[in-house]
């Protein structure tokens, strides 16, 4: 990440995509990829179409995703098709209370955040200090207090994810995966009612094709995977609030009003717009399609490069600025390609839970202290924000 930040990797990638769009138009751009039909999505309207029509005829369960994610969530909804996917998706939406503004575990989340983040007092703050506190809180939120110090479970997940990065090139680490999933099952068995896992009440997805009940541990593996990205977003948002006094003041007013942390949620959303934690949204076509008069074979891989659309300064006057207000005044909703949590039937079902958790952490951190950014590049209002922002090298100082 440090090398990519120094090289301005995302800026280069976006410029390349803009040049391709200028040269070839904003339709799908088919690429000459060996053994694979593949295309780039270059139009915001096409982004909206592809995401709205998932999983048929645009399935999220792509070849690449199956290869990578099966390392640690072999029964995950993201790599499932047909009736299996429908059951698993419905289960996730029910358990994560996808359509409720606030999850029923919110009081427990608030208490856990207050207890854990009390450890971060005034003084230096870097990723090495922030991440362990974040993970202690996440394990408590997901499994309950007994999982607070179970570093081994999340370390095993990290090892499996590292293998997943190599997709087809590494064999399955089945022994490590079974150890990880076994530990998840053990934590599940002891989960209290005020944790996410405790709300399962012993239920599964009623999946007849999964007699070993591997579905539930696989979904929880994905929850942990997603909470990792949420931690990165929280730390980056803290840096933005540290360097943008107007937004910080508005956030503090939001906290004082006790009105649901709506502004802080918008701050998180705009941080994900600026630095997407899922820079490549992938779909595969499930049938042959006629796309604006051109044949698109079944099994074609589609890539939506989100930084192109989130940072498209040819269309968005706020492309390189921190503007949480666009998520409150309707401007973001009018842009079909601004998709910090994806969109359509494949939108992240934990969106509201993640926004509540991250906003609660930020509220605790900024309520009664200021922060300064000590590392470079430091985001500043009035100048374009960096296209790549390395949270691992970010250093702040907290002041009472």
What spatial form do the alpha-carbon principal axes imply?
Answer: globular
**Strand residue content:** 5-15%
How do the SSEs run, as a string of H and E? HHEEHEHHHEHHHHHHEEEEHHEE
Q: What is the number of E strands?
A: 10
CATH architecture: Orthogonal Bundle
Number of helices: 14
Annotated CATH homologous superfamily: Cytochrome P450
Helix content: 40-55%
**Low-confidence spans:** none
Just give the CATH class.
Mainly Alpha
CATH topology: Cytochrome p450
Strand order of the largest sheet: 1-2-8-5-3
Largest sheet report = 5 strands, mixed
Q: How many structural domains are formed by the residues? A: 1
Q: Structural class of the helix and strand makeup?
A: alpha+beta
Compute the CA-based radius of gyration.
21 Å
End-to-end separation in angstroms reads 31 Å
- Mean pLDDT across all amino acids: 92
How does this structure look, described?
The model has no long low-confidence stretch (mean pLDDT 92). This protein has one domain: Cytochrome P450 (Cytochrome p450, Orthogonal Bundle), CATH 1.10.630. It contains 14 helices and ten strands. The strands form three sheets. Strands 1-2-8-5-3 form a five-stranded mixed sheet. It has a three-stranded antiparallel sheet with strand order 4-10-9. The longest helix has 29 residues, at 215-243. The relative contact order is 0.18. Helix 6 (106-117) packs parallel to helix 14 (351-366), helix 10 (215-243) packs parallel to helix 14 and helix 11 (245-257) packs antiparallel against helix 12. The protein has helices spanning 2-7, 9-24, 44-52, 63-69, 82-95, 106-117, 127-143, 151-164, 174-189, 215-243, 245-257, 262-274, 306-310, 351-366; strands at 29-33, 36-40, 58-59, 123-126, 280-285, 289-291, 294-296, 301-305, 370-373, 395-399. The chain is α+β, with helices and mostly antiparallel strands and 400 residues long.
């Amino acid at each position: 990440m440090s090398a990519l930040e120094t090289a301005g990797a995302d800026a280069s990638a976006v410029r390349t995509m803009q040049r391709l769009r200028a040269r070839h138009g904003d339709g799908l751009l088919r690429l000459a990829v060996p053994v694979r039909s593949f295309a780039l999505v270059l139009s915001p309207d096409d982004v909206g179409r592809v995401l709205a029509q998932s999983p048929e005829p645009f399935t999220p369960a792509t070849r690449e995703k199956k290869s990578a994610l099966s390392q640690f969530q072999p029964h995950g909804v993201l790599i499932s098709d047909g009736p299996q996917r429908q059951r698993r998706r419905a289960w996730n939406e029910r358990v994560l209370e996808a359509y409720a503004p606030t999850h029923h575990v919110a009081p427990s989340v608030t208490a856990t955040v207050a207890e854990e983040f009390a450890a971060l007092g005034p003084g230096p703050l870097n990723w090495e200090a922030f991440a362990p506190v974040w993970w202690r809180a996440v394990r408590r939120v997901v499994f309950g207090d007994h999982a607070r110090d179970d570093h081994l479970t999340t370390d095993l997940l990290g090892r499996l994810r590292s293998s997943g990065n190599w997709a087809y090139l590494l064999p399955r680490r089945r022994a490590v995966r079974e150890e990880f999933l076994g530990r998840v099952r053990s934590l599940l068995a002891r989960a209290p009612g005020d944790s996410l896992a405790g709300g399962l009440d012993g239920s599964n997805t009623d999946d007849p094709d999964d007699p070993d009940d591997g579905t539930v541990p696989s979904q929880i593996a994905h929850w942990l995977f997603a909470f990792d990205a949420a931690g990165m977003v929280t730390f980056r948002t803290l840096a933005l609030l540290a360097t943008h006094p107007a937004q910080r003041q508005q956030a503090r007013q939001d906290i004082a009003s006790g009105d649901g942390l709506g502004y802080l949620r918008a701050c998180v959303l705009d941080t994900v717009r600026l630095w997407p934690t899922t820079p490549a949204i992938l779909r595969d076509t499930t049938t042959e399609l006629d796309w604006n008069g051109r044949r698109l074979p079944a099994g074609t891989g589609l890539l939506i490069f989100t930084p192109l659309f989130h940072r498209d300064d040819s269309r968005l006057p706020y492309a390189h600025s921190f503007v949480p207000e666009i998520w409150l005044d309707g401007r973001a909703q009018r842009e079909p390609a601004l998709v910090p949590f994806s969109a359509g039937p494949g939108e992240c079902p934990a969106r509201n839970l993640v926004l509540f958790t991250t906003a609660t952490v930020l509220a605790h951190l900024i309520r009664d202290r200021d922060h300064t950014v000590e590392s470079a590049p430091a985001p500043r209002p009035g100048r374009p924000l960096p296209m790549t922002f390395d949270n691992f090298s970010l250093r702040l100082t907290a002041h009472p």
